[in-house]
Amino acid sequence: MNVSLRQGLAALAAASVPVVYALTIRPWHIRWGATDEEFTRPLPGDAVVPDGIQSTRAITVHAPARAIWPWLVQMGQDRAGFYSFDWLERLAGADIHNADHIIPAWQHLAVGDLMRTYRYVERGRRHE
After folding, report:
1. Distance of CA 120 to CAs 72, 97, 126, Å?
2. Please, are residues 39 and 56 in contact by the beta-carbon 8 Å criterion?
3. Nearest of 51, 29, 56, 30 to residue 41 by alpha carbon
4. Domain residue ranges in the chain
5. Alpha-carbon distance 70 to 47, whole Å?
6. Which class for 62: exposed (0-12), middle (13-18), buried (19 or more C-beta within 10 A)?
7. What is the Cα–Cα distance from 85 to 107, expressed in whole angstroms?
8. I need a surface site. Which of 9, 66, 102, 118 has the fewest CB within 10 A?
9. Helical H runs in 21-103?
């Protein structure tokens, strides 16, 4: 196979990646785990998000809300993390340390409290 043909095939393969993603992977990815009903129903916050590309991902947890809430309420950069992969968070530059137990000091969350998703710097001072 000559060099021009090889380069042409490589360019065609590279150009097809976005098309294959858009047609096969993306439709699954934007609704990962969600049922048809979950994917199509209105959700809280829809009114404040402009129309455009949206996704609905879901997971079914077989536990009552009272067992799940303590884990959710302590989420955040400056708290118990996001229960993700530590290596992935470090790769993204986050200094997040996921908790593996309920921390009583983080069980109180009020309207208006921030749930930080990243470290930020304000006037030369780093906030965690």
Report:
1. 22, 16, 6
2. yes
3. 56
4. 1-60, 62-128
5. 27
6. exposed
7. 23
8. 66
9. 26-29, 36-40, 65-73, 86-91
Query: What gap in Å lies between CA 11 and CA 4, rounded to an integer?
Result: 10
Q: Kindly report, residue by residue over 61-108, the tens digit of the pLDDT.
A: 899 999 999 999 998 888 888 888 888 877 877 778 888 899 999 998
120's tokens: 């930020």
The pTM for the full model equals 0.58
Q: Could you tell me where the beta strands, DSSP code E, fall in the chain?
A: 120-122, 125-127
| Secondary structure (3-state) at 125 | strand
Higher pLDDT, 109 or 122: 109
8 Å CB contact between 36 and 56:
no
Q: What span, in angstroms and rounded, lies between the C-alpha atoms of 115 and 50?
A: 22
User: How far is Cα 68 from Cα 72, in angstroms, rounded to an integer?
Assistant: 7
User: What are the backbone angles phi and psi of residue 120, rounded to the nearest 5°?
Assistant: -135, 155
